[in-house]
Amino acid sequence: MNPWFAGIPLALIITILLAGGALWLLRRRRGAGIKVMLGVNGLIMAGALALLAAAFAAAPASASGGAAGTAVSMATDGSDSSSAALIGAAIAVAGSSIGAAIAVAYTGSAALAAMSERPEIFGRAMVVVGLAEGIAIYGLIISIILIGQA
Question: Which residues are in the V-ATPase proteolipid subunit C-like domain (predicted)?
Fold first, then answer.
C-alpha cells in the first residue's frame, strides 16, 4: 500500500485536533487563536505542496514482462503532450468558470437592484448577466479545442 494513503487518516485526525484547538483558543484568547489557525493553515499548505512535489517527481509505472512491457511502452508514447493538453483544458474550464461566477455575482446583484427600482429593464439586465455567463462558455470552447488537438 502506498505510504501516502496510509498517512491520510493520521493527517486528517491531526488537522481536526489542531483546528478544534485553534477554535477553542479563538473563543478564549483571540490573538493566540489566530496564530494557531495560521499555523494550521501553513501546515496544510506545506502538506499539499509536498504531495504536489511527490506527484510531479514520481516516475510512471511500468509493467515487467516481455509483451506486456512492450504494450505499456507503446501505449505511453506521446502521453506527455496529451496530459499537458488535459491539464490546460482543466485550467481553462476552472478559470473561466470562476471568472464567470464572480461576474454573475456582481452583475446579478446589480441587475436585481436596478429591477427593484425599474421593473421594465428586466430584459436589458438579463442580457448583461448572460454576457457575464458567456465567459464560462469561452473556457469550455478552449478546452474542447485543446482536447481535440491532444
Answer: 87-146
Q: How many CA atoms lie within 13 A of 1 on its CB side?
A: 6
Instruction: Return d(Cα 71, Cα 39) in angstroms, integer.
Output: 48
- Residue 4 domain boundaries: 1-55
CA atoms within 13 A on the CB side of 54: 9
Domain harbouring 88, CATH code: 1.20.20.10
Instruction: Please enumerate in sequence order all residues whose Cβ is within 8 A of that of 62, keeping only pairs 6 or more positions apart, or say none.
Output: 69, 72, 73
pLDDT tens for 56-106 read: 777 666 655 555 444 444 445 556 677 888 888 889 899 999 999 999 999
Task: Tell me how far CA of residue 21 lies from CA of 13, 18, 46, 57, in angstroms.
Answer: 12, 5, 20, 34
Each residue's pLDDT tens digit, 9-68: 777 787 788 777 777 777 887 777 777 778 877 877 887 788 777 777 776 666 555 554
- Return phi, psi of residue 60, to 5°: -65, 150
The helix or strand, by DSSP H or E, that contains position 46, with its residue range, turns out to be helix 30-57
Give the C-alpha separation, 98 to 105, whole Å: 11
